[in-house]
Amino acid sequence: MNKEEQILKNRFGNENHFTVPDGYFEQFNARLMEQLPEREAHVVSLSAWKRLRPAMMAAACAAGVLLSVGIYRHATTQETKAQLMVQTDGQYYYDLDEAADYMMLDNDDIYAMLTN
Amino acid sequence: MMNYDEKTILKELSDPIGQRAAFAKVVQQYSEQLYWKIRHIVINHEDANDVLQNVFIKAWMNLEDFQGKAKLSTWLYRIAINESLDFLRKQKTQNALSADEDLSLANRLLADNYFDGDEAQALLQEAIAQLPDVQRTVFTLRYFDEMKYSEISRHLGTSEGALKASYHLAVKKITEYFRQRD
């Protein structure tokens, strides 16, 4: 704080000397809500690219998961296949669950991710 | 005390069905703090009430403009400050056209039921009212609300350096105003 500001604060302080009528804020809130006009249901329009981007991201993730699972399964030997069948089926379903999670993100979550 | 969670409120505001109820919570949460910001700028209670209503109606009608990149409070404060400054500009135009300003601001405040300060406080408000509008806004936000420069910068969209310069100039002018009176 500089000297002049200090002088002002010493002389006048900085308290609030404005007041309001009793119950003003409670009444204000109710009055305002009564006055608020109706809004038309409005869908925020995005460009085609922005609209499709979340779905494309989810589709790309799902395709990547499925492709890697497919390659992994194909690369295993006959001997361990039976054993692996149990494991990879579990993995397959787990990866599918993850992909499904991505695809089930609702729009608000996706928009929040995009704007962060 | 109402439970206010901004994330939840933003989600509800984006849904046309729950929008009005969510906006009521926003009004409840922010009306008082916005009112005082406005009041310090426009001085008179009735004027502050009008400006505050305009702020919320504007926010309600332009919800789509709030993209969630900043906090809701920052967006509302920005509307409030802009509406207050618009009000001051209109008031100046009306005062220039009418010859009704016989009483000084200090005397009008002392006669005002919604001002409980003494003559010194009233004169301080008069000195502040002499400042250019934006400088007056910066001064009141910093001096009375003790807002950080970083916060003022977000509300006004002005650099912190410019705000510091504006504030110090305002302090100098007010000091000079009283030096000449004393």
Structure description:
The complex is a heterodimer of chains A (116) and B (182). Chain A is mainly α and 116 residues long. Chain A folds into two domains: 3-35, no CATH class; 48-115. Helix content of chain A is 71%, strand content 0%. Chain A is built from five helices and no strands. In chain A, helix 3 packs antiparallel against helix 4. Chain A is elongated, with a radius of gyration of 30 Å. Chain A starts with a helix and ends with a helix. Chain B is mostly helical. Chain B folds into two domains: 1-101, Rna Polymerase Sigma Factor, Chain: A; 104-182, Winged helix-like DNA-binding domain superfamily/Winged helix DNA-binding domain (Arc Repressor Mutant, subunit A), CATH 1.10.10.10. In chain B, 73% of the residues lie in helices and 0% in strands. Chain B has nine helices and no strands. Chain B is globular. The interface between A and B is large, with 32 and 46 residues.
List the helices and strands and how they pair.
The complex is a heterodimer of chains A (about 120) and B (about 180).
Chain A: H1 3-12, H2 24-35, H3 48-75, H4 81-103, H5 107-115
Chain B: H1 6-13, H2 19-42, H3 45-61, H4 72-97, H5 105-110, H6 119-129, H7 133-143, H8 149-156, H9 160-181
Helix pairs in contact in B: 1-2, 2-3, 2-4, 3-4, 7-9
Report strand % of chain B.
Answer: under 5%
Q: Which structural class matches the secondary elements of chain A?
A: mainly alpha
Helix content of chain A: over 70%
Shape of chain A, please? elongated
Mean pLDDT of chain B: 90
Summarize the largest interface: chains and residue counts: A-B, 32 and 46 residues
Oligomer: heterodimer
**How many angstroms does the end-to-end distance of chain A come to?**
36 Å
Please, how many helices of chain A?
Answer: 5
Uncertain runs of chain A are 84-98, 100-112
Largest sheet of chain B: none
Number of strands of chain B: 0
Supply the CATH superfamily name of the largest domain in chain B: RNA polymerase sigma factor, region 2, helix turn helix motif
What's the β-strand tally of chain A? 0
